[in-house]
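In this supplementary section we document a worked example of the pipeline. Step one takes a protein sequence of length 414 as its only input; no multiple sequence alignment statistics are reported here. Step two produces a three-dimensional model, which step three serialises into structure tokens for compact storage. The input and output of this example are shown verbatim.
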Amino acid sequence: MATYCVRRYLGLLKGRASLGWQKRKFADSARSDEAPDPTAVVTDLCRSRHFITGEQVEKDSLLAGWHGYGPLGMVLRRNLAEQWWRSMTTSRGQVFGLSTLHQAGSGGRKALKLVDGEALAVILKEKGQSVEQLTAEVERLLGASATLRTELLQGALEQYAHSLSLVNRKLPFGLAEMGVCYQPAAPDSEGTTRTGEAMLASLVWFSSPRTAGQWLDFWVRHRLQWWRKFATGASNFSSSDFQDECGTKGTRLYYSFPWGREPIETLQSLGDRELLETHQDNRAKLQCRDERKTVIPHVLSVSGNMDRGVLAYLYDSLQQLKKVDSKQRLHQRKVLKLHPSLAPVKVALDMGRGPTLELRQVCEGLLQELLEEDIAVWPGYLETMQTSLEQLHSKYGCIYSTGSSRSCRSCNGQ
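The serialised model returned by step three reads:
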């Protein structure tokens, strides 16, 4: 009887221990099944896969333009910019390209001064100055400093009169430009204000006053369809009307990031005010022909942020692939499935492990031919071939080995 009681007691202890282990196992499994933070996942992938570089790669720094691009990120942004340029200029006869200086003219709506720090320090350290003298010296320095552009609109407005001969003063037509602009950002947690950089793409469209509203509707539809064309989740791109502090109405295109919507492109119908303010000396030179009438055109501004667009497509392309092996173990991989038109690499060419001299020459020749045809090629290695294909979203992969060489000889009758 005593033996039975001892065995019973030990069995109960064992059962409790087993139950506790199962509870811990279930809790660990539940934690492992929790969805990771997509913001942290994408930023980690962008850093590890050479898309984005910078001291702090996080949400605020990415939105403010405090980051650079690695080899793959640079090509991704270039591909996106080329697609934008092709859709705006190459496919349209009434749109002409521009390239203006980074230093803005005096008529810009916003101003960001590039001040010589040493010269400012000399003025501030000079003793015996009154407040009026100090203010006058600082204003003189600011007046002599360059003004950096924060948008591309002003450059197109200044070039408007010179471009009328291209269209024989006939409406509508547009001026397109793409370039780096400088964005003053709000102070960070430490109170430091930094200047961010952004690659902006601008179309300034000139049309008659009677058709300005119709053109705004057209360009809103066109631009929203264009952004959605390269997206996996097209519904994440949306539009919304707005009105700024000056009463100007327009439409913003947004992408829904994990933390909320962020604007990627802005369209505004500006009327003729901006054009008249830029060319105050002679109104007659601004007039164009609208059928049989002579009018001063209304201005439609389309301004897209290419860096914000790159960030949107990186988030849009994130996918988590799950696979269960023969031992019922779950394997998960995080990959970026970019659209083939935007993907940095089109073909991954693997030269095999330890190839012979003849095999390496064949592979290098194939690599050179692909590059000459302007096809982006990734010269990967056999042990990382599958990983390279998934990470780079290369649609095609070529694995060339000694066996491939023998197969080619047999097919050629050798």
